Amino acid sequence: MIPHGNSCLIEPRRGRSEAPLPRHCILVFNPEDLGAFLRCFPGPVPRSHKLYLSEIFTGEFQGVQIAVAGPMLGAPQTILVLERMIALGAARIIAVGWCGSLQKDVRIGDIVLPTGAVSEEGTSPHYPVESSGPSPDLHRLMAQSLRSQGLTMHEGVVWSIDAPFRETVEKVKKYRSEAVLSVDMETSALFAVSRFRGVEMSVVLVVSDDLSSLKWAHGLRDPAFRQSRQKVVATTLEAVCSAARNLIQPHLSGPRDCNS
Fold first, then answer.
1. Can you state the angle between helices 31-40 and 223-242, rounded to 10 degrees?
2. Would 47 be classed as within a structural domain?
3. 8 A C-beta contact, residue 155 and residue 115
4. What is the DSSP letter of 164?
5. pLDDT one-digit tens code per residue, 71-86
6. Residue 146: phi, psi to the nearest 5?
7. pLDDT for 183-241, tens place per residue?
8. 5 located within any domain
9. Quick check: 145 and 235 in contact, CB under 8 A?
10. Enclosing domain of residue 71
11. Structural domains in the chain (count)
């Protein structure tokens, strides 16, 4: 139950004329990756919804209906889209994005699979949960799928921040000493909201740049980064299909109404 005085004035709802979404969905932060996902489908993937600044495309992949949503940037915009998607029926969601490394052994092109997140964004504190993190079964499936593709993967805590131009030397040193793997803008909010709403969530991040030396090194043109992104797209779609075929059983409590 939400503490007294925290009932919400606005709840995400499905409109009368809105089509529902399939339960299996992928959130994609970057437009380049969104295009890569859509190209993996065997035929054209029509746009089914437009939510704020993002578009949702719904198609069939290996016999499974999947919605792919994007692009989006930062916790507030991402959660606006996620909340509406949950209201439309999304229940098992994988988010795919990029991150900056904070550790010397987490290299450009590696994969970070977050098990938790330090929040320095302003969205997740508004979702009261005792703990947050990925869905254990979905996280495990993603880890197995990524390893099977020979990708170098790291599991651990990430740091989510709203202000990428305020990733200060002092903070990088602090989180590096605490074994935080990387920095992004959305993971902590995704974990909080998915736990609050009772849906399954896993986050996959490709390392696009490196802050571990206390100097910024970008890897957007690095062949390892490009190859990893391609593998992550294909692997994520395969994992969604595996989940849909009941290789993992859902453990959902059902979407939670803020006013309940």
1. 50
2. yes
3. yes
4. G
5. 999 999 999 999 999 9
6. -70, -40
7. 999 999 999 999 999 999 999 999 999 999 999 999 999 999 999 999 999 999 999 99
8. no
9. yes
10. 24-247
11. 1
